[in-house]
Amino acid sequence: MTVRVRFAPSPTGYLHLGAARAALFNYLYARKTGGRFLLRIEDTDLARSTEESTRSILDGLQWLELGHDEEIVFQSENAEKHRATAKRLLEEGKAYRDFTQKAAPSDLNVKDQIRERARQNQGEKNMRDNEYRDLSKQESDDRAAAGEPFAIRLKVGTASDSDRVSLKTSFTDAVYGLQERAYAETEDLVLLRSDGHPLYNLAVVCDDIEMQITHVIRGQDHLTNTHKQILIYEALGVTPPTFAHLPLILAPNKGKLSKRKHGEVVSLTTYRDAGFLAAAFRNFLALLGWSTGEEKEIYSLEELIEKFSLDGVHRSNAVFNFTENDPRKWTDDKAQWMNAEYIRTMPLDELLPFVKAELKSAKLWREEYDPEGRALTSTVPSTRAADFQTDDEERPENLAFDIPEIGSHDWYVRTVDLIRQRFFTLKDFSSQGRAYFSEDYDFDPAAIDKNLTKFPDLRVWLPELADRFETEFGDVEAAADSPRVSSPHVSKGSSRKPFTELNIETVVKAFTEEKATKLGVIMNGARTLLTGVAVGPSMLSVFETLGVERTVMRLRSRVAWN
RNA sequence: GUCCGGUUCGUCUAGGGGUUAGGACACCGCCCUUUCACGGCGGCAACACGGGUUCAAAUCCCGUACCGGAUACCA
Q: What is the sign of the dihedral through the CA atoms of A212, A214, A218 and A222?
């Protein structure tokens, strides 16, 4: 029998992290077993369900790339079938009409109400004391015919079962093991409200049967519901599916992770919008409450599928760690680390489309960055000074041919590769990395303070360095020709040196010695002026990447000083 | 209240009778260095508690504590 699993969220809000993880586990299990992953929107609570929420859930699943295999089922559309099932159970004597008046709403919130009622009962409550439970069929029919409102309740542990050895429901959970619950602990649950509205447990069972679900993988908060559902399966004469309950994801205080209390951190789309890579977040989510047992953290989707097993799911809840008032720790450290890890180490050509999308949305994208009929990633030989440190003798004399044209596809690819080393999210490409793609970038006040204001001499030195660069590397004619996309760093027919790391290094070092200052002072001052921030790759790479024109222009700029 | 589940570094976790209790993140230190949130090396840090069983318990059993879930004419 092929495995059929489903993710069944109720559209009463955004896609919660815990729900997203449940979806992931269902998906992984389906893929692992060659089964089908289905989606069912449990929108029977009309008052709370919204279309917007459904869309947000679908968005989230799409972002995580958890594609479902068949048409989405909307539970509300099956209400008629649910009612029919309840009626059938009524006919068969497995359920009964309860004519008790619906309880009036109280001021207490629902949870407190429930607890309060339970406390008053002091555990003395007999779950079978409903006066309508054994009403004669005749009287029940008559009262119904007379228009008296009633709910339909399941008869739990009826007389026909009395020959059983033990009056309990039991099932073996794939995660939590053998679960047993005495009938005495389970109330005669309502299947159909007095207004004819089918209730959750009935709807779930009917739909799972109809969708031929073989494995129900869901949050541990449904563990006790399972007993009720099994009762319904039994009444219906259907073999229940296998159940696998997942541990919950808790807030740092070990309480429930909720939007009310914790806000956006709980919503999956927050991570999409914050520049997380779906692959990274999926990886992180997979490791909350499940592990392979290996000492390994980074798993591709394919690996997750290959390794996934319900045996590896934990029984204890996991804490999703974050600190509310600390911007650096707004979400789980490990999630942030994992995202950074993906950005820094994933194959460049897989990252590129995401960077493109980010730059586009920040209006920093230029069509020239797209490859022009070339292979997506061309291998560009390194010109980085660091790569030649071992053997000075072999430093190439002229690397001009290796330097991609500023603003070209090759330049773009190389730049992304250069700057991604210190980035955490895709957003960084348009914020921290903005200066690489635009003249319109901001200056971090802290960087200005630390690297410029402290050294007033730089006011003079930096423009002077610009002059030096211009005489050593500049190409006035070419600059005039194309002000935006400059030509390579070698001027035609001139003997000027190419603007490469090695050459730049020589010039800057000489300049530093002249000024009798430290290299760091010049470099960091230049970094701040050129990129607006205090952190980044090697300054020599930055110079080269920006090109001589932009370097000269920015070194002369006074914007940051005021 | 009752029922069910859980408890290994701050967090995610490995380990399921004999381990110097392992890894990752975070944190701290050192190194590299022109900066840094890159990289390298290192450090801090845990078996909830009490009883058993056993030659031997983080591991098995019982109890306690604490945490979580459920308990609805919500889903």
A: positive
